[in-house]
Amino acid sequence: MSEKNLTFAQQIALRSIPSIEKLLVQEAFIQLQEEYSRHQVTNLLRDVVDEARRQILSQDAALHIPVESEYCQLVRRRLKETTMSSLRPLVNATGTITHTNLGRSILSPAACENLVQVASNYINLEYDLETSERGHRDSITEPSLQRLTGCGASTVVNNNAAAVLLTLNTLAKGKEVIVSRGELIEIGGAFRIPDVMEASGAILREVGTTNRTHLGDYEMAINAHTGLLLKVHPSNYEIVGFSSTPEMAQITELGHQHGIPTMQDLGSGSLINLTSYGLPREPVVREQISAGVDIVTFSGDKLLGGPQAGIILGKSEVVQRIRKNPLMRALRVGKLTIAALEATLRLYLNENHLTEKLPMLECYTRTLEDLKSVAERLEKELRQIFEKSVRVTTEKSFAQIGSGSLPVETLPSLAVVLEPQQMSAESLAARFRSQSTPVIGRTQYGRFWLDVRTVQERQLCWIIEAAKGMENETS
Q: Which of 59-73, 162-176, 227-241 has the lowest mean pLDDT?
């Protein structure tokens, strides 16, 4: 736009914008360049100046055009925004405990401490301290996994999808993998077992029907091209009613009779009997190893409560084949994952007070009495903050373990429910998300629910501060 087409007010405003060179020699900018590089400061200052110019040309009277003394403050604010981590702590008040979008498991203090030690020092990741020769990173987690599961050997990759991919590629590339039609599940993020199988180079051989598969279906499908018998635990859904499927022990026996390796993908995977903690039963890894299965795969987070990882364990000779696969180097985990996983596994070696040591197990097993105490405190605080602008109550809720674990099971819970009087529940939820420490709940029936099962005691102050930060916006 030429200056002839501008209003007189626009021309005056444009001329009032100071030059980059004039601003950079000011004392405030000189001090700023001592903290940050001149190049970084100059680029962001140019952005601020360009934005001021665009606002003037847009003729939007509601937009604020900075005065000369404000430019340094605006640049400093942008510098902080660009240099701070994009990953931010937040409050998970959704009621989904292992929430994929919110980082899944919260690690134990022991795992966090081990992470710091490993991250800040050289370590014996692949170094044998006795022989001074090269070691193997699996030797760090393998002893604990052997004691906890009875496996012969183990290895760790970056997630369970990778564990399935690598195992199928090693044992059945170019061969048929027999699997029940009812177990061809989607394991999250649009990753489907048939797609993973295709990517591995294995050939899918479906047997049975969606709801019923018999051992005879597996046996009739076995031929000269069969490379593997696979059973997938449908951890993210459940078929009820007229349904059946062979036990892993039966499939394993069938595989041994025909000289065909067997594999069980447990998905979530559990190292302990969850029923002793008042939770629904999930297959225990040790039980599958005892059944004689050649390879078991499962996640390191989810029910285990460790870092995101895919654990492969079973018979030594089979694990050795998997380790030698060229894909192993692309899919293996680094020292930080190993550090967190190894510390988590050590906690399971002594089950005493396990709920106190594992944050995720503590979330699963919190009593309603404990939740009531938390909810009452939060309800009282929020009522005082919002007064008449938001109606605040405590109501019964149902939480879930999440990430495909125990999909049809819910845990009794309590939620502090906010019903705004001047705005929609979605708008209230957006305001909670926009605070310096975001609070993520769920909107339901025109109200905003804060499920306290997923809220830790130390996080109550974050919710209260978030509410105070938006107090004026809701009235």
A: 227-241
The DSSP output letter for 208 is S
Can you give the length of the chain in residues?
475
**Res 147 pLDDT > 90:** yes
The pTM of this model reads 0.85
Residue 303 corresponds to which tokens in the numbers above?
């029910």
**Domain architecture of the chain: domains with CATH:** 3-83 (no CATH), 91-98+364-473 (3.90.1150.180), 109-353 (3.40.640.10)
With H, G, I as helix, E, B as strand and everything else as coil, classify residue 411.
strand
Task: Quote the DSSP letter at residue 264.
Answer: E
Look up residue 405 and give its amino acid: S
- Please state, in angstroms and as integers, the Cα–Cα distance from residue 157 to each residue in 164, 298, 299, 311, following that order: 10, 10, 10, 6
Q: Residue 136, SS3? A: coil
Tokens 């047997």 found at: 207
Helices 335-348 and 109-119, axial angle in degrees (round to 10): 150
Q: Helix (H) and strand (E) counts for the chain?
A: 20, 13
Average pLDDT on 353-378 reads 94
Distance separating the N- and C-terminal Cα atoms of the chain: 42
Per-position DSSP letters for 269-316, written without gaps between them? -BSS-GGGGT-----BHHHHHHTT-SEEEEESSTTS-S-S-EEEEE-H
Neighbours of 380 (CB within 10 A): 13
pLDDT in tens, 225-252: 999 999 998 765 555 555 678 889 999 9
Phi, psi torsion values for 85, nearest 5 degrees: -65, 140
